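# nightly structure sweep
# worker-07 picked up a monomer target from the shared queue
# config: single-sequence mode, recycle default, output format = structure tokens
# input follows
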Amino acid sequence: MPFDEIMMPKGELCVAVLGEHGSWNRYWEGDYFRENANIGTFTRQMLMPMVAMGISKKVNIIASLPYIQTEASGGTQVGQADLQDLSVSVKVDWLQQRVGAGRLLFLTNTHLSNPVGSYLSDYMPFSIGAGAPEIGMRAITGYKMDNGLVFRLATAYLWRGQTQIERDFYYQDGAVYSPFMNVPNAVNIQGAIGYWTLENRLRLEATYMSLNCLTGDDIRSYNRPQPTNKMEVSQVGFWAQYYIKADRGFGAIAYFNQTVSGRNVGKAATMGLGLTYQFKAY
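# output follows
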């Protein structure tokens, strides 16, 4: 993944398909936690193919393109279903230094994503994405012990561009006459405590993730969210990955995330399953 410490060996290719289901029935309007009976329970489902390739021992390329569908159990509004954003990233392993009873790790991941679907970004919460380009710079530090324990922290700065909307007037701390909205830049933090076992075939992790926009406004009372909102979210979760063989072949992924705090987002519970296949490409 773009945020972990694992690197693909040179010439090897990993193909993965992830399926995800998330839902919520309460959300934060600014910092006020409330219900919205107009839409009932909101559901977001995703099917995402991914490819990771070892260009060299120290450089990997990762690409993904999710298909997302949204819907609600109540109300009259319909959800969206479309391809979201194509993301391509370069992951570099800069440091593997022996320290004490393990290895100190330092990697970076630089990604670029851009919308490819024709979805409406200003149709939140049913929109499947922000509809804006994004450039992210991520630093990944970790410590992998000889007994299988892994400690990891990844911090990223996310620059976002503008999204074009289907209206030429909106409110953002006042009246704005424009068909474009600025999507706020954000800081993303991901941490994990993991454990490798079964001869490095099973990886178990307890995870934490936070996303905090650096600017933006709050959802106006009894109004819908929009791409200019200052979104903040903190999640805790669990991740398991099993390699049927230690080096190549099929593998499986399962994970669960629970939102514990937020601002201008839904309190979502998300679960996912995935299948991977790794092989020697050259």
